[in-house]
Sequence to fold (345 residues):
Amino acid sequence: MHGQATIFYCALAFTSFVSISYAQETIEKCVMKAYFTGDGSLTLGEIRNACSGMKIYEDEVEIAKLSITSDSTSSVGAISSRIIKERQTEFEPYVITPHKINYILPAITTDGINKEVYSGFEGYKENLEDIETKFQLSFKVPLNYESILIEGDGLYFGFTIQAWWQIYAENISKPFRETNYQPEIFYLTPLDWHPFGGNTGMIAGIEHQSNGRAQNLSRSWNRVYANFLFEKNNFALSFKPWLRLSENEKAFKLDPKGDDNPDIEDFFGHYELSMVYKWHDLEFSMSGRQNFSTSKGSSEFGFTFPLWGKLRGYATAFSGYGESMIDYNHSQTRFGLGIALSNVL
Fold:
């Protein structure tokens, strides 16, 4: 779990508290317009369908669920805009809703690939390349149709997979060096608080992250987290502290039931701070993790830009520990260039 991929993986928490009368006013305006300017043959059913089906009405209904009061100086920001678009299609049977950013980096380099961890595999360590391919696929599914506790809140299931592919390795069978799996369940709720004229929300969740490997290569952990989100116009910020769920120590070195990485928090830290800014059709993101007692952590920067159609260019830079689970205690600097299928926001 790192980087801008984490970044607002939920991009969701801004719901409730606008009066529905605002949306009703939109319908009334539509009806009156049809009355004065519409074709005389229009039936009541046709007017009703036209007004209730207007995209502007659909948007206003979602805005009416956002934590933006009609007398507030706050406005719909980058996160809220994404939520509005997602909620119009998230229950459609043939629609997959992005969770974190989805991308493929045909080439990502490193100043020192982690070879020591593979020393037990003959011929493998020596042939790993410092350039490989990486991709991330991430989606989320809403688990409730109606609000649970507060108007506009919700429960979601999310799943993210990351893979590092040694496609440029010549003397080994171009294996997937590492694959990370991250299922999670999270609850979102709005906050009726608008500092600096922005919007805020809170997310609470539980997640598992592992690489699905065995014995010496096995890495995993479970954690609960809170995520505070803030948006204003095209700027969004996320502060995500977490608490690791403890596991039993291994009874012996290759014990499959013991803790694979008891010191992971020394390198991953206890929180992540992320920011995103949209400027015209460009999106800039950055995130950082830190453990103040060990002075270890990481930073990551991302940049997406339009290419063609839905495809966007994606450039990223990472420095520090934990670029993957197998590398949780390995420090490196990486640069990647590729294609993004969805933005952070």
In short: Residues 1-23, 54-58, 67-72 have pLDDT under 50 and may be disordered. The CA atoms of residues 23 and 60 lie 5 Å apart.
